């Protein structure tokens, strides 16, 4: 084929044989190329197809090595045959052109190869730095990290945290399988799980397993295993991340146990409260009959024997009657307090502004002859039980009226504010106040900070207030100064609306 391209008959008669036609020569050339293509992974074809440096050089140099001489030779043949060049001159020009062309090709390939090599070195350096950084990260992790090769499941990587957790050096594990460090039975089921995950190409599996350590005994480990695939999509490694969750599981078990115990105690407490409320209700109800007898016979005795009794006797009889009435009031308050715990909440929109003003007017009417300055600000509407909230403010405002009875001019203020999703209502007065050292007793049953001779009461009112507010999901607290007034706060969750109103000032 070269002979025909160069016009040389000598190349067509190799060994003095009969010359081969161009078609036959091309057929033999195609056959030879086909033989090479039959096994593309071998020989020059395999090298040309490779992704390495050799393949890149073959792909760039081979076309030039075959094509340049052929093209230059054909050009020289045409020029000599046409008389443009002498044969010797044509050979010289062809040789010089081939040298320059091959030098240029060599230069270009060398520059390209150098750039590739520089990029490769940079890539290797970056890969080394990344590998070093990754090694540092893996070694610094507080959790166990290990890597197994997928075929035999031998450990090829193990970090420092894993050594600490297991209490054994990584040299005991690297290059070994689970059969080398565990019993055959335990190693079998653990490796079976790993192989099942690899064979099914599961992306990740999380499990908790008991692990026997050398220094801490049996521990509960939570493992997350992830297969790592090669470029062909086949599993090459198995990455495992382990965390000691022994204390966490113990804490969860303890919390569950405490929760069960708390539920049991809550049930016992509820049962005790029900029994106590039933007892209180029964006792209070049963005490009504003898009190009615005492009160009734005291009244009869006063009518029939009043003229035969001296002043001291009539005083004694009055004390008995008054004590019976006080006991009756106490029983009524206890019954109300008991009912408050059992009664259902009938929630609705409650206009505190109207409710407080109505209660203030009723209390003002019950205190004839007193000068009371009511200062009621704008109060919002809230969600709650109207009857219960009315009882709470009857107690709060009633206490304000009662404990300002020693003042020539009583001042009772009621205002509200919004804070952290709560409506905070404050009832403030200029009464006798109280000592803050005993503030913790204010809202208890039968707890009173003043003598009954000074201010009558049963010690149930504020306890009722706290119970009502707590049933609404709210809070109560108080502040006071001896002989300097008191402030009682009620915080109720959420608001419905705010309706501004003018201050109510009344005097009776």
Order of helices and strands: HHHHHEEHHEEEHHEHEEHEEHEEE
CA-CA gap between termini: 134 Å
Low-confidence stretches: 497-508
Beta-sheet strand percentage?
15-25%
* Coarse shape: elongated
Structural class: alpha+beta
Number of helices: 12
Strand line-up of the largest beta sheet: 2-1-5-4-3
Number of strands: 13
Query: Mean of the pLDDT scores?
Result: 80
- Could you give a short account of the major beta sheet? 5 strands, antiparallel
In terms of quaternary structure, what is this?
Answer: single chain
In short:
With 508 residues, the protein is an alpha+beta fold.
Overview of this protein structure:
The chain has 508 residues and is of the alpha+beta class. It has four domains: 39-118, no CATH class; 141-244, 2-Layer Sandwich (Beta-Lactamase), CATH 3.30.450; 256-324, no CATH class; 345-499, Heat Shock Protein 90 (2-Layer Sandwich). Mean pLDDT is 80; it is low at 497-508. The chain is built from twelve helices and 13 strands. The strands form three sheets. It has a five-stranded antiparallel β-sheet with strand order 2-1-5-4-3. It has a five-stranded mixed β-sheet with strand order 7-9-10-12-11, covered by helices on one side.
Fold topology:
Layout: H1 2-6, H2 22-38, H3 43-49, H4 53-81, H5 87-140, E1 144-149, E2 155-158, H6 160-166, H7 184-199, E3 205-213, E4 217-229, E5 235-244, H8 246-305, H9 311-342, E6 347-351, H10 352-365, E7 372-376, E8 379-385, H11 386-402, E9 410-419, E10 422-429, H12 461-471, E11 475-480, E12 486-493, E13 497-499
Parallel strand pairs: 7-9
Antiparallel strand pairs: 1-2, 1-5, 3-4, 4-5, 6-8, 8-13, 9-10, 10-12, 11-12
Helix pairs in contact: 3-4, 4-5, 8-9, 9-12, 10-11, 11-12
């Amino acid at each position: 084929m070269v002979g025909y391209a160069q016009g040389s008959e000598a190349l067509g008669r190799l060994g003095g044989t009969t010359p081969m036609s161009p078609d036959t020569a091309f057929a033999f050339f195609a056959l030879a190329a086909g033989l090479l293509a039959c096994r593309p992974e071998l020989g020059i074809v395999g090298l040309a197809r490779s992704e390495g440096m050799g393949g890149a050089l073959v792909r760039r140099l081979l076309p030039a090595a075959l094509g340049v001489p052929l093209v230059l030779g054909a050009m020289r043949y045409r020029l000599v045959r046409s008389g443009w060049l002498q044969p010797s001159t044509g050979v010289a020009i062809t040789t010089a052109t081939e040298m320059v062309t091959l030098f240029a090709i060599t230069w270009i390939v060398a520059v390209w190869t150098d750039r590739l090599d520089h990029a490769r070195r940079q890539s290797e350096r970056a890969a080394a730095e990344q590998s070093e950084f990754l090694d540092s990260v893996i070694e610094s992790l507080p959790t166990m990290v290990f890597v197994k090769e997928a075929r035999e499941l031998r450990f090829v990587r193990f970090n420092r945290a894993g050594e600490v957790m297991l209490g054994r050096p990584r040299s005991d594990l690297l290059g070994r399988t689970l059969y080398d460090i565990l019993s055959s039975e335990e190693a079998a089921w653990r490796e079976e799980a790993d192989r099942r995950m690899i064979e099914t190409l599961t992306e990740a599996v999380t499990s908790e397993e008991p692990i026997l350590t050398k220094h801490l005994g049996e521990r509960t480990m939570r493992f997350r295993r992830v297969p790592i695939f090669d470029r062909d999509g086949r599993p090459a490694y198995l990455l495992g991340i382990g965390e000691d969750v022994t204390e966490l599981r113990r804490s969860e078990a303890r919390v569950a146990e405490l929760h069960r115990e708390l539920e049991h105690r809550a049930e016992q407490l509820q049962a005790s409260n029900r029994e106590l409320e039933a007892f209180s209700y029964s006792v209070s109800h049963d005490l009504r009959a003898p009190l009615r007898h005492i009160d009734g016979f005291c009244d009869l005795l006063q009518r029939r024997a009043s003229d035969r009794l001296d002043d001291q006797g009539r005083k004694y009889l009055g004390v008995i009657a008054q004590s019976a009435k006080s006991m009756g009031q106490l029983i009524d308050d206890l019954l109300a307090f008991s009912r408050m715990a059992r009664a259902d909440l009938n929630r609705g929109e409650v206009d505190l502004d109207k409710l407080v003003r109505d209660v203030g007017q009723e209390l003002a009417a019950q205190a004839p002859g007193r000068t009371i300055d009511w200062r009621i600000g704008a109060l919002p509407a809230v969600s709650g039980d109207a009857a219960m909230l009315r009882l709470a403010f009857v107690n709060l405002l009633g206490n304000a009226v009662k404990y300002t009875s020693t003042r020539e001019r009583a001042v009772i203020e009621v205002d509200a504010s919004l804070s952290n999703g709560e409506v905070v209502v404050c009832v403030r007065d200029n009464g006798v106040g109280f000592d803050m050292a005993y503030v913790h007793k204010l809202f208890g049953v039968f707890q009173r900070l003043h003598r009954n001779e000074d201010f009558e009461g049963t010690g149930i009112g504020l306890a009722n207030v706290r119970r009502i507010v707590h049933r609404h999901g709210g809070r109560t607290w108080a502040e006071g100064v001896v002989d300097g007034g008191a402030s009682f706060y009620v915080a109720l969750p959420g608001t419905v609306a705010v309706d501004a109103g003018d201050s109510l000032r009344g005097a009776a």
